[in-house]
Amino acid sequence: MDVPVSDWASKLFNGEEESLQGRALQVRDGLGQALVDMQENARSSQQDAEVSSTQVHGVARYRGAFERVSSELKTIEGAELVKPNGFQFDLVRIGNGLIYPFCFSKQNSNVKNARIQNVWSVIRELFAFAPTSEQADLFGNYAFDPSAVELRPRLAALPEGTRLVLVPFACNAAGLLKPYWGVAALADESGTLEWTVDPEPLPLADSPTPRLTIPKQVASHPGFDQGEEPIVPLAPREAEPKSGS
Question: For 93-114, what is each residue's pLDDT tens digit?
Fold first, then answer.
């Protein structure tokens, strides 16, 4: 049974044009496919490495979360790739939604407790496109104020109304556990999230995208010194007649 796209996602990703009314569904399904592909590639990398540490999976998963999402979604009509200053990956903006995927746990954890592990400069800039936290401290101050963040050129150039959409997922070398999407404010500098749109489960694709396979290479011709030695026919040489005889 198909799960309808929520109103918040429709408003963010669908444009006003009639032809774009199904774009939010494309985004949601594309995210589900991208995360399945991410996990399959990371799992294969871990198996091919034949090492006991799961670091190989972690590196492939981290890079794959951004690369597979951008690769999957960039063909959707109106998609824009955005690379924040100081960041090595492209993010995708579709409609008014700017998508940021991240792994929040390696265990079967409650996504409501998800945190941003490292609130560094790029994260602070991204959350300038998030709602303002409503949780004040004992003195009535807010630990993170989106309006006070100074944006560098690439994010500063984004249109007004752009909203950060988080795609948190739990994942380890054994499997992709819980992928979601939603909207949250950054409550403090330690990465606490305050969800303003409850994270919703993302439907996943049934199978990974088939990977390109390299045809088996035909063995090259041997070098001149590697082939079989030719058999040279030998025959007695007739004696030449002596002069004057």
Answer: 999 999 999 999 989 899 999 9
Other CB atoms closer than 10 Å to residue 158's CB: what's the count? Answer: 17
Write out pLDDT tens, residues 194-243: 999 999 999 988 888 876 554 555 555 555 555 566 565 655 666 666 65
What is the DSSP secondary-structure string of the chain? -PPPPPHHHHHHH--SSGGGTTHHHHHHHHHHHHHHHHHHHHHHHHHHHT-S-SHHHHHHHHHHHHHHHHHHHTTSTT-EEE--TT-SS-EEEETTEEEEEEEEESSS--GGG-B-S---HHHHHHGGGSPPP----TTS--S--GGGPPPPHHHHTSPTT-EEEEEEEEEETTEEEEEEEEEEEE-STT-BEEEEEEEEEPPPPSSPPPPP-PPPPPPPPPPTTTSPPPPPP--PPPPPPPTT-
pLDDT in tens, 148-176: 899 999 999 999 999 999 999 998 888 89
**Inter-residue contact 47 to 65 (CB < 8 Å):** no
40 pLDDT band (50/70/90 cuts)? confident
